[in-house]
TrEMBL record:
Region (Disordered): 1-187
GO MF annotations, alphabetized: RNA binding
UniProt biased composition (Low complexity): 136-155
Listed GO biological process terms: exon-exon junction complex disassembly
Name assigned to this protein: Partner of Y14 and mago
Lineage: Eukaryota, Metazoa, Ecdysozoa, Arthropoda, Hexapoda
GO terms under cellular component: cytoplasm; exon-exon junction complex
Extent of Basic and acidic residues compositional bias: 65-77, 123-133
Family listed: Belongs to the pym family.
């Protein structure tokens, strides 16, 4: 423990003599300074909490020990005793009661038929209905696709050839429209070639 001396200028540590006989100079001490050896050791909150008494103030340790022993005894009894009703409204049948019930059944009692599980039946009906709806939808799609193909399909070649023949007959009757007829013939032949190409593509796709 460091001893301080005071004078008009404040606190100071007085001069002390070393073992070899020399003297240390006196040292001034600022107000509020605490030497390192006098600083209290740091203690965590957990350590301080553990040092506090675990019993309530004024309760003697003997009474606390008796209360603890009584509580432990009750817990052991509760663990050894089987639970009567762990869930409210739950009836627990012991093995001997079950055996008595089996013996009490008459010998000519018919076994109960297993009830039909309604959810499975409904599920099967639903699956059948879905399959029917899918097949109807597929047939409808096929009909629609056939109708679209028939609409997109060009006129048969017979109609085109008839039109060409009619034009040729008309050209024989009037020589003035010969140039017009030749143009129309070229156009019709071009259409015939296009129709043939389209038909070949349709056959290849089928």
């Amino acid at each position: 423990m460091t001893t301080y001396a005071t004078d008009s200028q404040g606190k100071f540590i007085p001069a002390t003599q070393r073992p070899d006989g020399t003297w240390r100079k006196p040292r001034r001490v600022r107000d509020g300074y605490v030497p390192q050896e006098e600083v209290p050791l740091y203690e965590s909150k957990g350590k301080l909490f553990a040092q506090k008494p675990s019993l309530p103030p004024g309760l003697p340790p003997e009474m606390a020990q008796k209360a603890r022993e009584k509580r432990e005894k009750e817990q052991r009894k509760a663990a050894a005793r089987p639970a009567q009703n762990p869930v409210p409204g739950l009836l627990i049948l012991h093995e001997d009661n079950k055996a008595n019930q089996r013996q009490a059944k008459p010998a000519n009692a018919k076994p109960k038929k297993k009830a039909v599980e309604l959810p499975d039946v409904l599920l099967e009906q639903k699956q059948k209905e879905e399959q029917k709806a899918a097949s109807r939808q597929q047939a409808q799609d096929q009909r629609n696709s056939k109708q679209q193909q028939s609409q997109n399909q060009p006129k048969p070649l017979d109609d085109v050839t008839k039109a060409v023949q009619d034009l040729q007959l008309g050209s024989a009757s009037g020589a003035d429209g010969h140039s017009d007829l030749s143009k129309k013939l070229r156009k019709l032949r071009k259409k015939i070639r296009e129709i043939e190409v389209i038909e070949e593509r349709l056959r290849a796709s089928d």
